């Protein structure tokens, strides 16, 4: 027979909250039954008072944490507005279009899943958002980048967009989840991107960008901070076939490094050596049953995936595009890279220190 009913319910409730909070922090439900058993044990012994006070103290703690987490959701950050203004110069807009649809692969994330028209080069680039990212912290959807004033970026200034991309601070001051590693883009490339976005006709598509779960609120409260550039970004980076330009494209524009390095899915922090691969990414069209593991792109003779590839083989491979349907790599975009950009990336990858890291099969069927 439970203790007096009110206390029973209250303390059970607090215990449940506490257990859930603890399990969330410890990232496993395995502890839950044990903690519950402890509670029932004490209940049997009739330790009413202890129970009551433990309940009250833990309850207050949980409530405190909940309030802090809730308040932190509204935390805003300051960052300078880069002095970037969109241009209507056709060569700048053309550079922007190339970046958006190619190396910077904005189209890979900001497309509208209901319309695949972004592959079509004849001027119809739909960037009205809504692509879903299902993560342990909840579901995040890409916002609408068309010039629609209500649901797109039509009401944001050039400098607000530039600040979001360079400093990871959203238009409303909140920290953006670190999906977009464009912090080190040159002023000229940032200008080009925004100039092209301004040419997109308005498309009405209201997107709920963040749909976080309990864990997501916790992560957002304590772990997500705006990510800014690692050095003062260059005013201009000249396109070339050198390893230096390859490094700029691979690390700052195309994010080859972001996927070809192992990371913590919860926070995005790097856990592996750069370019040594091994990052598990869920299948692009069937995430329930498949995942892909990024190959090691360092020139390691034993485990380097592209070890022994000539520049020409690398070039042909990138242009050939997607071969594995479940691949998370933005092949539709990267296959559009100009030859010189691909050659520069190849040169850069050859300069990396070899890292021995056998990443196993690329496509993995998830056993349930
Ligand atoms: C890997 C996926 C991905 C890529 C690539 C990507 N985005 Fe995003 N973008 C997102 C997600 C997800 C958000 C929402 C993040 C958030 O609100 O925390 C976002 C948010 C934005 C925002 C809104 C910022 C604000 O103030 O709220 C802009 C503007 C933007 N992206 C522009 C771009 C441009 C331009 C590119 C290409 C250079 C690009 N994105 C490439 C996923 C991506
Ligand atoms: C969004 C994540 C992501 C990004 C960004 C990314 N890759 Fe990949 N890459 C993958 C995954 C996953 C695979 C394994 C599946 C496949 O082969 O498509 C892969 C495979 C490859 C392969 C092996 C292809 C083959 O057929 O053997 C090469 C080469 C490669 N990537 C190069 C690059 C380069 C160069 C860049 C930057 C321009 C890049 N990747 C950016 C995720 C990514």
Description:
- The protein is mainly α and 368 residues long.
- It folds into three domains: 5-72, no CATH class; 77-236, no CATH class; 238-368, no CATH class.
- It has 13 helices and six strands.
- It has helices spanning 5-26, 31-44, 48-72, 90-101, 106-110, 158-167, 187-197, 214-222, 243-253, 256-259, 311-320, 331-334, 339-350; strands at residues 132-135, 138-141, 210-212, 280-282, 290-293, 363-365.
- It has a three-stranded antiparallel β-sheet. A three-stranded antiparallel β-sheet has the order 4-5-6, with no helix packed on it.
- Strand 4 and strand 5 form a beta hairpin.
- The radius of gyration is 24 Å and the shape is globular.
- Residues 1-11 have low confidence and may be disordered.
- One heme C is lined by residues 250, 254-256, 258-260, 281, 292, 294-295, 297, 305-306, 317, 323-324, 327-330, 334, 345, 362.
Task: Offer a quick outline of the entry.
This protein has 368 residues and is mainly alpha-helical.
Name the features:
single chain; 368 residues; mainly alpha; three-stranded antiparallel beta sheet; 6 strands; globular; disordered N terminus; binds heme C
- Mean pLDDT score: 87
Query: Which class of secondary structure composition applies to the elements?
Result: mainly alpha
Largest sheet descriptor: 3 strands, antiparallel
As laid out across the biggest beta sheet, the strand order is 1-2-3
């Amino acid at each position: 027979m439970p203790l007096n009913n009110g206390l029973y319910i209250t303390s059970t409730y607090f215990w449940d909250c506490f257990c859930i909070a603890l399990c969330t922090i410890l990232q496993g439900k395995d502890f839950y039954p044990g903690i519950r058993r402890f509670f029932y044990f004490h209940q049997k012994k009739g330790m009413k008072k202890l129970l009551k006070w433990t309940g009250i103290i833990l309850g207050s703690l949980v409530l405190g944490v909940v309030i802090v987490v809730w308040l932190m959701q509204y935390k805003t950050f300051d960052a300078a507005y880069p002095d970037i203004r969109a241009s209507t110069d056709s060569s700048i807009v053309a550079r922007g279009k190339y970046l958006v649809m190619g190396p910077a692969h904005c189209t890979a994330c900001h497309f509208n899943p209901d319309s695949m028209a972004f592959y079509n080069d004849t001027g119809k680039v739909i960037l009205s958002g809504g692509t879903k990212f299902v993560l342990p912290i909840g579901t995040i959807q890409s916002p609408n980048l068309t010039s629609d004033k209500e649901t797109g970026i039509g009401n944001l200034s050039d400098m607000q967009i530039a600040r979001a991309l360079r400093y990871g601070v959203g238009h409303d001051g909140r920290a953006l989840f670190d999906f977009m590693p464009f912090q080190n883009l040159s002023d000229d490339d940032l200008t080009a991107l925004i100039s092209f976005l301004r040419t997109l006709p308005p498309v009405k598509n209201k997107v709920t960008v963040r749909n976080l779960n309990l864990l997501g609120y916790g992560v957002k409260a304590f772990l997500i901070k705006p990510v800014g550039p690692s050095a003062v970004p260059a005013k201009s980076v000249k396109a070339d076939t050198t390893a230096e330009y390859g490094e700029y494209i691979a690390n700052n524009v195309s994010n080859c490094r972001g996927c070809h390095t192992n990371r913590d899915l919860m926070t995005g922090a790097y856990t592996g050596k750069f370019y040594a691969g091994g990052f598990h990414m869920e299948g692009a069209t069937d995430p329930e049953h498949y995942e892909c593991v990024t190959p090691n792109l360092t020139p390691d003779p034993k485990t380097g995936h592209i070890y022994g590839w000539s520049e020409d083989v690398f070039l042909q491979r990138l242009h050939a595009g997607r071969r594995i349907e479940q691949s998370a790599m933005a092949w539709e975009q990267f296959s559009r890279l100009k030859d010189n950009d691909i050659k520069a990336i190849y040169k850069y990858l050859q300069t990396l220190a070899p890292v021995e890291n056998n990443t196993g099969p690329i496509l993995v069927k998830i056993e349930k």
